[in-house]
Amino acid sequence: MTWGKSVHLPVTSDAGPTAETSGPPAADPVGVRRRVPWGAALPLAGALALWAHSVVRTDPAQLGDFGLVGALPVTYWAALALLTGGFWYCVRDPARGGGWPAAYVLGLLLLERATQALVYPTALYAWAWKHDAVVEHLLSAGRLETTAERLGDMAVHDQWPGFFAAQAGLVRLTGAESAAAFMAWWPLFSSLLLLAPLLLVYRTFTQDRGLLWTAVWLFHVANWVGQDYFSPQSLALALYLGVIAVVLRRGGRTGDGARPGGRLLWTALLLLPIAAVVVSHQLTPVMLGAGLAALCLIRDRRVWALPALAVLAVVFLAWNLTVSLPFLREAVPEMLRSFGDVRGNLETGYGSTPTGTGPVAVSWVARLLSGAVLLLAALGVLRRTTLRTRARPLLLLTVVPLLMLVANDYGSEMIFRVLLFMLPGACFFAAAALLPPAAASTAPDAPAAGPARGGRRRTVLAGTTLLVLTAAFVPAYAGKDRLSYFPPDEVELVRQVIDGAPPGSLVVAAHRNYPLAYASYGEVGHYWFLEDAKSHVREVLDDPAGTLARDMADVAPPGRAYFLLTRGQIAGSEMNGMLGAAELRRIERSVADSPLFERVGGNSAGVVYALRPTTGSTP
Description:
The protein has 26 helices and seven strands. The chain is an alpha/beta fold. The protein has a five-stranded mixed sheet, with helices on both faces. It has a two-stranded antiparallel ribbon with strand order 1-2. The radius of gyration is 27 Å and the shape is globular.
């Protein structure tokens, strides 16, 4: 033993996978100083300094067809390259490990998930603002809607309120004005939540720190789908992984934890996260059930997966036969019609097709990123036979989500959700493809004590691959920020409309892509004509003012009818293959020139008109 080094002893068990324990570090002799690991510290410090400089230099007003990608200075890309290089330097030789890979992953999350929160003065994504509206409704009304007449766009939130109730409690606890005060930082927070369950899952099958942290790095690089925003899915995914981690790690163990009393205790502890998943999200409980059912096929996991599956089934049925039953009565017939229609479930549909050079390019980057990670995962499964055998439960959990493609299109999003739930396992095997088995180990995939693993050519190739994948995340994740970002002027304009609208009012817009699009949904209605039948959209194009006035004529006093057009709507319509900016501007001019409407507000981000009271539809 040498002074100043920790002792790491690989421990094996006949009943399960290897584990790793560490003894306390020996004290340094008097007068002897530890050597600073400059090779690990300097790239991280340099990357963070370059990133901080980049954030200050980035102007959100410069967003174009490539979103944030076109606005980022070259120093950001240098920071990303330096960060990736430093991380690869640490993980390719486990002897350099320690806590540095974890520090680099935290740095990656800052570059990936904190940049937008620092650059943009408002929260991204119309759906985040929609969820803020649900929290606001819960805070103001003290309840969510469950009656049949209130069903519609908001029913799926009102009848799965777990996430929103938790956020309402957080707003009360912190004294924040609303969830909008912190939801811009939610992508970073939700990504940090995933670290512990991911590590627990991965440590079930390997004690190689390089493999562990490379898998975590790849997960966050490949998770471009955007489900980390202020949403029930972001929290439900962390809970899903937590339940899976417990089942995987307890399975096959001997001792007190494997006795009936121990299993009963752990199953009782799983009740809370399982219930939280069921009351917060519609799809995640189904994914969790499918995963637990798959684990029941493996003997040493069955004894743990089966009780967890039973608890999930009881809570799931209890909730869906009571609270969410009104929604399910309306939704189940359509779900049954789409069952088995894999081709239809994969289609994105009208209004979801990227259009224009930028959107098409970043969509292809995202597809190639996902394809590359899945290809690496397949390579890792084929080449690492020992790991494949030991991690068979994780391999099964990676494949099971594909079954959901048979079930439903989930609002044209099923393919993205399937990818999301495949990523934890896929990234583990993809990391195994980049990192060859550790040398001189006493157990499969144990950390090496010798020099860097693999030859120089392989090391450079694998490191370059990791760098390309890491860089590809940026356009895949932030390449559509022209659509997702709403400047303060747009937020203020919509807020003025909502705050000034009497109860029973109607806001008509071209597209739902604007902030506060669901605000005050208990008192103010919302209608987006581009989501109507194409025949009606043609009527709006042929006679904009006349058709819109007819659509808005049924608003009863004291409500008023408003026509709202903002830059976010134009970006959403253009980038999703609907109407172009020229067509939407022509509709606006028709409304502006019509005696049926009066302008009641506007700024650099948009304009709002109200149907005149003289039409007989308003006071």
